[in-house]
């Protein structure tokens, strides 16, 4: 692309999930409802873990951080999408788009790290129960959380700085409801080799690394459960990690489904709709999974609202 065809970018157009004007009121109501449920549900989890001393344990500390990350993850994209639907505008400023890229990466990758940390917590609790409080002490928990936050923030900063060096031409339409890094790179008319390499390396290290940790932890957990002689003991032990395993399965299955489908379809709106699953639906369902399958959370919420069982 010739330099004279490049333009000083001031705004992008987010094409969203559908351009059908008849669907816009329905989409606005649907995503407003999902966003409110997500924020309320995750806030309840945070309130329950903070207010109840019985939940001042490593697992619920990590869970409250996951809930906070989920609130921020959906808040990165949904409010702007709702504003665009309501105002019948697709415009997002260049600065707003870069900010979305940064926070979307931060909280998306942070979810990945926190799920891995929670898997490690379950591994220690089941495979080394007598040493659990010694291993999962406050210092280690603090290091795990701090390391997760710092790593994801630095990675996102690097990715965003790399995006700032890109120049764009006349096609400024993003076939998505959020400014996603991959879409920006595809729109760029400058050399994107360095951006592609950073994205791939980060995906392997920060995506594959935590996933490998989760798989290793659950391989050890399954091995430990199989060694238990009684069926009741196996069920009781396995039940302690059912909620986390459900959330992990939901997150990775939807995420994997989106990126596998991208290799077989070129329909931009289909890709945007598929992305809704891991970026909006999964954060909305997480509180229900933990509250419905976890008696500790349910009891904490009852005590918080002073509801008799």
UniProtKB/TrEMBL annotation:
Segments traversing the membrane: 26-47, 59-78, 98-120, 140-158, 197-219, 240-260, 272-292
Pfam families noted in UniProt: 7tm_4 (PF13853)
Family, similarity comment: Belongs to the G-protein coupled receptor 1 family.
Localisation: Cell membrane
Full protein name: Olfactory receptor
Molecular-function annotations in GO: G protein-coupled receptor activity; olfactory receptor activity
Annotated keywords: Cell membrane, G-protein coupled receptor, Membrane, Olfaction, Receptor, Sensory transduction, Transducer, Transmembrane, Transmembrane helix
Top-level taxon in the UniProt lineage: Eukaryota
Topology versus the membrane: Multi-pass membrane protein
Domain (G-protein coupled receptors family 1 profile) ranges: 41-290
Gene3D superfamilies: Rhodopsin 7-helix transmembrane proteins (1.20.1070.10)
InterPro entries: GPCR_Rhodpsn, GPCR_Rhodpsn_7TM, Olfact_rcpt
GO cellular component: plasma membrane
